[in-house]
Amino acid sequence: MNALETSLTKLTRALIRVALGFYFSRIERFHAERAPAIGPVMFTANHPNSLTDAFVIGTSVPRKVHFVATAQLFRFKPLAWFLKQCGVIPINRVKDDPRAMRTVFDTFEACFRVLERDGAIVIFPEGITHDDPQLKTVKSGAARMVLELEHRHGGRLGLQIVPVGLTFSAKEIYRSKVLVNYGEPIRIAEFVGGYEERRKESINELTAEIEQRIQSLMLHLPKLEQARVIEAVKRLYLDRLRLGNLIVKEPISPRAEELLLTQAIADAVEYTQRTQPERLTAFIQKLDRYEGWLKRLKLSDEAIELFADRKNLIGHEFAWALMAVLGAPVALYGWAHRLLPAAVVRWAVNHFIKREHRKSPASTTAIISGIVSFGVIYSFYVWLIHRWLGWPVSLWFALSLPVTGLIAHYYLRELRRLAAGLRITMIFFRLPIVTRRLLGMRSALIAEIESLRTEYRLTLQPTSGS
């Protein structure tokens, strides 16, 4: 790696890490020790969030990581030069240019050179990015690549695949959360035996292993119609599940715990649908009635929880009202300066993303346009203050912009919650019968979840004869 490439890599990683830190409120790394710091390794991950997936993985491991990206990005020469300096490897997909598929061989050879130098590569074997909570069919390219290379070296290269599961709490929403879940490494040498005689079988076997490992690291829903039920159970019951769960046996981060518990909920829903479909149907009907009432009154389930804690409801709202008054000057200062760059980001998201594909590329567009708009406009503000008031005022002004910008965002979010809370309080006093009805419906749903959970747990316990 030459000095220019090293400098560009460090600068790019630092810039992207800062941008991710502003867009996401938290990036959790679960079992990060499974990502080898040295030696040839290929990271294979699900692909729910466009180019942001590469950003997240690339800044989550303590080493330089190469990516395989569509050749479409390399059509603009200045961008192509920059991407190559940063170690991005182009590949032609069928939809890019069917006549240029011969260049896939060149891509493989470029990846081989990286791995033979003990480098690291990231591949998204689904081949596409998408919004479904479902792993798409894993293509065989990653397995073919690593098996061929390990075979060339007689099984002595030490090449590994590390599966990665990416879970975004709400990828299109600013200040959401991400979980990067690393799986146990797969040693390719263990799959090379007999590769020469049975190439197709070896490739299919390794591809199936990669697919199974990635699925275990994310929330995979084979039946997408179950997604709504699972989300409802999470809203109603996740906090109770955290208190008495028998699934998580070790201290882990909140997002990792939520993923494991959500996987358990998905398994329980699938089991109930298979063994007691009529009972699940009855639960969904009750859920429909409950959510229908919420929609009619423009309330959320979180709001109904506040009804249950009616002693603290008024005190809670008074405390937030006081904080709203005290925090207003700082929030207004932050919003006054972030209004223009934030408007540019919104315009970019609305202009460059098709409405039917709004979620997947939203964060990528917001991050890239945010780097440009906030960087340029904030720099212009600092330049004006420096021309007017000089140092050190312009320095302190520059340091205040990102901090007060974040404060302004959270202030507005909490102000909306305060408004919702005041509305809840009014409903509580004006419609006490409706309030009690909603609480009763919610309690009945939770009781049914508890009953189903108890029955499902019995199926997980080993029998006395085993």
Describe the structure.
The chain is of the alpha/beta class. 63% of the residues lie in helices and 9% in strands. The chain has 15 helices and 8 strands. The chain has helices spanning 3-23, 50-58, 77-85, 103-116, 141-152, 189-192, 199-216, 227-244, 254-275, 277-297, 301-308, 310-352, 362-389, 393-430, 432-460, and strands at 24-30, 41-45, 66-70, 88-91, 120-123, 160-168, 176-182, 186-187. Strands 1, 2, 3, 4, 5, 6, 7 and 8 form an 8-stranded mixed sheet that branches. α1 (3-23) packs across α13 and α11 (301-308) packs across α15.
How would you summarize what this structure contains?
This protein is an alpha/beta fold. It has 15 helices and eight strands.
List the topology elements.
Layout: H1 3-23, E1 24-30, E2 41-45, H2 50-58, E3 66-70, H3 77-85, E4 88-91, H4 103-116, E5 120-123, H5 141-152, E6 160-168, E7 176-182, E8 186-187, H6 189-192, H7 199-216, H8 227-244, H9 254-275, H10 277-297, H11 301-308, H12 310-352, H13 362-389, H14 393-430, H15 432-460
Parallel strand pairs: 1-7, 2-5, 2-6, 3-4, 3-5
Antiparallel strand pairs: 6-7, 6-8
Helix pairs in contact: 1-13, 5-7, 8-9, 9-10, 10-15, 11-14, 11-15, 12-13, 12-14, 13-14
How many strands?
8
**Helix coverage percent:** 55-70%
End-to-end Cα distance, whole Å, is: 57 Å
Rg to the nearest angstrom? 26 Å
Query: What shape does the CA trace take?
Result: flat
Task: State mean pLDDT (0 to 100 scale).
Answer: 85
H/E element sequence: HEEHEHEHEHEEEHHHHHHHHHH
Q: Percent of residues in beta strands?
A: 5-15%
Flag low-confidence runs: none
Number of helices: 15
Global structural class: alpha/beta
Largest sheet: 8 strands, mixed
